[in-house]
Amino acid sequence: MSAEDLRKQILGLVAEYYHANWPPQPFVPGQSPVPVSGKVFDEKDVQNLVDASLDFWLTTGRFAQTFEERFAAFMQQKHCLLVNSGSSANLLALTALTAPELGVRRLQPGDEVITCATGFPTTVNPILQNQLVPVFLDVHIPTYNMDVSHLEEAVGPRTKAIMLAHTLGNPFDLDAVMAVARKHDLWVIEDCCDAVGATYQGKMVGTFGDLATCSFYPAHHITMGEGGAVLTSIPLLKKLVESFRDWGRDCWCEPGHDNTCRKRFDWQLGGLPHGYDHKYTYSHIGYNLKATDMQAAVGVSQLDKLPGFIASRNANFAHLLDRLRPLEEHLILPESLPDSHPSWFGFPLTLREGSPVTRNRIVQHFDDHRIGTRLLFGGNLLRQPAFKDSVHRIVGNLSQADCVVERTFWIGVHPRLSLPMMNFMTNSLATAFQGGT
Fold first, then answer.
1. Residue of 79, 220, 221, 369 marked active site
2. Model-wide pTM > 0.70
3. Residue 220 known to be catalytic
4. What CATH code would you report for 50-257+283-302?
5. Is 305-433 a CATH 3.40.50.1370 domain?
6. Which one of 19, 89, 271, 431 is most buried, by most CB atoms within 10 A?
């Protein structure tokens, strides 16, 4: 048999293996786990993973190129740069704004970046990593996005950027954020790691700011296991992100290709002699943060299912919202802005003051019944050990961020959840408030 015939045979067997190894499982309330998140995959995902492994290319290749083209189109952007995680995407997006090529708009140590006190840590970490100063604003409940009432006040003489996540897939107030950004000539980075497919005024989130980031960790809307992306429609920013992602080199050749510029040995940059190999000329302090083609292969097949995943998440959210209305005397239910259409990542809940049970009691009750929950990431980050001594500025107070620390949690809406699972979750929550087991 030829190598190509053998490949077809292997991929056929992979499909059989998928069905034999991951058959549907019945749901038994109280015994079967109800995960808060998790990957959803089929035989095509496993086949693509094996197909890429048979190439043994290992670094970025044909699948990565396909994914970047298709995902950029889905997100309504010109450029997508695949990376090894959403956290790396955030690091690259912000670090790209420190490049000398940006002139007076370049971020330099001591400049400020406005963000939300309850953001995910790796939305804030790149600010600190680049010796910049995060300016923290409070969170708004029940949207769980930054409270924009103090946004104009937060802009100071050294404020250069705004970096925010669309929390749990719920778009933040893009009208307010972009108005302040335009007025003060601020960069905007939209962290869309939880919000792939969400729209605001009919336009895809991630297209409002200068840069957007996404994550493909197993919990997210699609998965590569690990993986992320930076998106932009600004050619210079695309070039800068690519350089920082690819060791900081000046060369833009794809892996396995040489002399794309057709003058590989005819450059003179920095203090290097004329003709120094462009492939080994470095214009930025960069990293190697590329993804593998095996990761990208899974992403390519996941893209086919993405619209269905988003629809399932939003349908599950609507079902939970309807089921939990009777508990509003104890719970603050989530809301979105009128002009937004979320792509829900989770279902956030905050206990009202005077709740008959504590959050710890509820999450323990859920855990006893094998129902997964999560807190809203790090809560008020300034109460976390890693951030308590960081250089920062606060505008207004962080009272709602403290509320999130004490009384907020979220439950799942991902496509693997069935109606019996969700009904079991809501029934269990009602039982917790009644003091039952």
1. 220
2. yes
3. yes
4. 3.40.640.10
5. no
6. 89
